[in-house]
Amino acid sequence: MAGKQQAGAETRDRLIKAAGESLLAEGYAGTSARTIARLAGVNSALVFYHFGGVDPLLLAALDRATDQRMTTYREAVASARNLEELVEVATQIYRTDLAEGHITVFSELVGASIARPELREEIVKRSEPWIDFVEETLDRVIGGSALAKLLPPRDLAYAAITFYLGVNLFTHLDADRSRTEALFSLAARVAPRARLLTLRLPRRGGRDA
Fold it and tell me: Which sections of the sequence are annotated for DNA binding (predicted)?
């Protein structure tokens, strides 16, 4: 019995890995139970046996990628103490994600969800932890400052996620990445000029926040 359970777990693992690879190589439109099964080296019926369909399997692949990237992102931003350092870390994350294709999995499913309401609901649920993470990070770096009062971290988090997805999609049109790189260069130039706005405001009574 234990051997059968282990074999089932291994098959699920191979299917999840193959689903992510198929999204990266073929996109959502080119991904099917057959293409995933071929990459995993199993019968396509196992896609439905273990996951109930292609979309649930793709969501499982997204969940795995999310868990891995969230851990990496948290470690990466932990040392950022100001807006300048945060922009630098975000630029490094963007370049790594672009090179390794991590954000492509999410982008492909976002695009597919436009025509599939049931998929859209699942994507929205999976977007919330990212928005929370960005909000928490921004609140740690600029919370209590004039900039945070002008642009609340929650609103900035929505803007950051929207920007990041948009930039990733645009890189498919920007062959040499010069224009998308220019956006991060602009952010790096603007961040130091916003330094005064990111200083924490003193509390009433003269004590620092």
Answer: 32-51
What tens digit of pLDDT does each residue of 67-80 get? Answer: 988 999 999 999 99
Task: Render pLDDT for 51-68 as a digit per residue (tens, 0 to 9).
Answer: 999 999 999 999 998 898
CA 17/CA 35 separation, integer angstroms: 12
Please state the separation of Cα 131 from the chain's center in Å: 10
- Tell me how far apart the alpha carbons of residues 52 and 59 are, in angstroms, rounded to a whole number: 12
Helices of type H across 41-152: 45-51, 54-77, 83-100, 102-113, 117-142, 146-150
Residue 137, by phi and psi: left (phi above 0), alpha (psi -120 to 50) or beta?
A: alpha
Query: For 6-16, how does the pLDDT look when each residue is reduced to its tens digit (9 = 90+)?
Result: 778 999 999 99
